[in-house]
Amino acid sequence: MSLAVTLQNLANLVRFTPSIAPGPAGRTGGATATNRANLLQAQRQLFEVFQSLVDLDTAVNGSSSLRLALPVARSEPGLALDLNSYAARLQSAEEINATPTSFTPFGPDWNGASTSLLTVTGVYDGSDGSGEMTFEVRRAGERGVDRPRIRIYDPQGNRIRTFTVNRNHALDRLYDLRNGLSVTVGEGFLVNRDTAVFQAYDGIGSAVDPDKAFNGLRNDNPNLQFGLPAIVNNSFQVNGEPIAVTVSDSVNSVIARINQSAAGVTATFNPLAEQIELVQNTPGEAPTIALTDDFSNFLRATKLSSAVVNPGKDPDNERPLEDVSIFAAAQSGVFAINGQSIALDVQNDSLDDVVARINSADVGAVASFDAASRQVTLTAADGVSELDIDSNGTGLFTALNLPEGRVDPEARTGGINPRRVKRIVDSVAALADGLNALFSNRGLLNGKDPQVVALRNQLETAVASVLGGGAGRLDSNVGLRFNRDRTARDLGKFVEVDRRKLTLVLERSAKRVGTFFNGTDKGAGFTAAVAGAVGGSIRSLSSTLGSRGTLIDSFA
Question: Any bridge partners for residue 183, and if so which?
Fold first, then answer.
């Protein structure tokens, strides 16, 4: 491999390219606050997309070599959070008609020619068992003119009672059947021996009909629980919104009016439970359901006046930290990222608040929370930055299952690819071999040739410019040492590579490697300095030899 190619490969392998996005406000190339927020959001989304690709690659191949050249700290294992969210609920305290017995129909028809309509009302006490109860006309006559008589029989045919409808009895007069029920007799004629039948049940409960009007008569009765105040024309309020009620409404028509209002709830009638259910349209702990100012008696009639709200719930990432069990040990205070302090209030801050606060601070890091994996991720804002994480007594990062201390680029905890480390180390070793060949007198080069001497001097000067000059051995502190001693150079030991140390530094503190090879804004790194020296020597040799091309292959 040629020296130029080796240098190029080394640059490609060890260069930690900074993010192309503008940096935080206040830094060189900083973005406005609005742009920064957009970029942070885009960056977080890209991290999530990348993680999805890693998951896919792992699923397909069993493992993944996809890595970001950024220091990353991630919750390991994922957090035991309940991310379910549900809305506040409220339902009738019991069945709208909780009567354990029933009867039907409310208005039994005469089997013959009688026209005076019967209406049964009340609460059956079950004393006569279940079965058909029969009305029989025992004396004919016109209601209000004559004195007709009616007898009632139980399911076994036993006479319960006989009553007379006197001329002066009001139309709404109730005639007691001595079993909790009563009957009214309407205008018209009663034909002797005519009968009417209704069914009574001592073990089947009553049920409301949500489609029948509140003022419905006889068999149009909606069967609201007997004995409660009658619904009247007026209104009640849901979350401060008035809901009008008229006696001609039904349960379902009032429900529809609630849903069409601005109350922010959805009401339904559950026919199995025979209850009205209201659910907040906005999930979460704060939005509630308030039923007030009932002047229509609708809430009492439908058992909503005594109903208790079941509050909603926020997902754990939106709840205050102190309300989430896994964060119970976290305390209010100040935590630090890269030496920058960020306030924490466990009584009010949620996980989402913490993530947002990190991202709004100028700490050189981006935070994200992935709901699918339940992992919090902290990623350096650029490829050469470190992450320095410190709970500072708050216990936050312990609760988040994040490592504390320094997290370097390409650290194993951040996703280093061991094969890439080996490639870098091998390339550095190959570069060292090439440089040693240039300085050694054991090869083809004549150490006394003025241009060879000049070439060596240029390379030595370039190395010294990066390492600070000086005689004797120069140490890069990343696993490369340079011997300026003439004897060592002549023996091909100008560059020594400590493969173990270079590997360790790449795994633990890749920033140092990146800085050494790529330099900083204050000075060029090793790669650029040496490449510049080599390039100058090539041009000089080409000019001397009259070649229009390069002669780099001469040193392969």
Answer: 120, 175
Q: What is the pLDDT of residues 168-216, one digit of tens each?
A: 999 999 999 999 999 999 999 999 999 999 999 999 999 999 999 999 9
User: Which pLDDT value is given to residue 432?
Assistant: 77
What DSSP state is assigned to residue 508?
Answer: H
Which one, of 285, 245, 289, lies nearest residue 91 by Cα? 289
For residues 465-472, average pLDDT? 68
- pLDDT at residue 31 is higher than 70: no
Indicate the SS3 state at residue 385: coil
Q: Are 112 and 191 in contact (CB under 8 A)?
A: yes
Residue 470 pLDDT:
61
User: Nearest to residue 183, comparing CAs of 198, 168, 194?
Assistant: 198
Which residues, 6 or more positions from 57, have their beta carbon under 8 angstroms from its beta carbon? 64, 65, 66
Q: Are 233 and 121 in contact (CB under 8 A)?
A: no
Q: Which long-range contacts does 276-280 make (Cβ < 8 Å, 24+ apart)?
A: 276/91, 276/92, 276/96, 276/251, 276/302, 276/304, 277/89, 277/90, 277/91, 277/92, 278/89, 278/90, 278/91, 278/238, 279/87, 279/88, 279/89, 280/87, 280/88, 280/89, 280/312
**Distance separating alpha carbons of residues 554 and 447, to the nearest angstrom:** 16
Average pLDDT score over the chain = 80
Q: What SS3 state is found at 30? A: coil
Return the amino acid letter for 210: P
Report the alpha-carbon angle 540-543-545, nearest 5.
Answer: 110
